[in-house]
């Protein structure tokens, strides 16, 4: 065999002597292997958005510095409170008066935990307009 290697020159000849064969045809893949172990848990995603509408209204006459609750009004904050059972953000306050009447300024303010928030809607002239929307963002916790 050594004599044959000496007589044959080049890489192709050495491969032939060592039993190397040229590539054959391609075959379809074999069966899939077993499933690997489960990976690590991913990070926490963002909380789902909860949108809802809260309506505060009253059929009673509303005096200055009164709180409006659900179908009632008085100067007592606790009597006109609703409980929101999760953290959220208030983003709009719609304020209206019953009818065009006096040229007074009317203001509606969202109170959170008996503290005035930055969400304030003002009707500048009650004889011209009876409706106003105020946009903003207040955290309710």
Give a nutshell description of this structure.
Helix content is 9%, strand content 28%. By secondary structure, the protein is mostly beta strands.
Throw out a few tags for this protein.
9% helix, two-stranded antiparallel sheet, mainly beta
Count of alpha and pi helical runs: 2
Task: Write down the Rg.
Answer: 39 Å
Query: Sheet bearing the most strands, described?
Result: 2 strands, antiparallel
- How would the global form be characterised? elongated
- Span between termini: 89 Å
- Percent of sequence in beta strands: 25-35%
Strand line-up across the major sheet: 1-2
Helix content: under 10%
Series of secondary-structure elements, N-terminal to C-terminal? HHEEEEEE
User: What's the β-strand tally?
Assistant: 6
- Low-confidence regions: none
Mean pLDDT: 79
Query: Helices and strands: which structural class?
Result: mainly beta
What can you tell me about this protein's structure?
The chain is built from two helices and six strands; from the N terminus they run ααββββββ. The chain has helices spanning 2-7, 11-17, and strands spanning 67-68, 73-74, 88-96, 106-112, 115-123, 131-140. With 141 residues, the protein is mainly beta. The termini are far apart. The protein has a domain at 83-140.
């Amino acid at each position: 065999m050594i004599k044959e290697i000496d007589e044959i020159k080049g890489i192709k000849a050495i491969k032939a002597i060592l039993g190397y064969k040229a590539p054959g045809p391609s075959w379809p893949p074999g069966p899939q292997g077993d499933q690997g172990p489960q990976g690590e848990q991913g990070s926490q995603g963002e909380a789902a958005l909860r949108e809802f509408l809260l309506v505060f209204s009253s059929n009673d006459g509303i005096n200055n510095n009164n709180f409006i609750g659900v179908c009632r009004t008085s100067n007592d904050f606790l009597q006109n409170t609703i409980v929101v059972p999760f953290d959220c953000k208030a983003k709009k306050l719609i304020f209206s008066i019953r009818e065009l009447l006096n040229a007074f300024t009317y203001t509606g303010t969202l109170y959170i935990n008996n503290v005035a928030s930055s969400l304030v809607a003002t009707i500048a002239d009650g004889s011209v307009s009876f409706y106003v929307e105020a946009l903003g963002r207040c955290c309710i916790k």
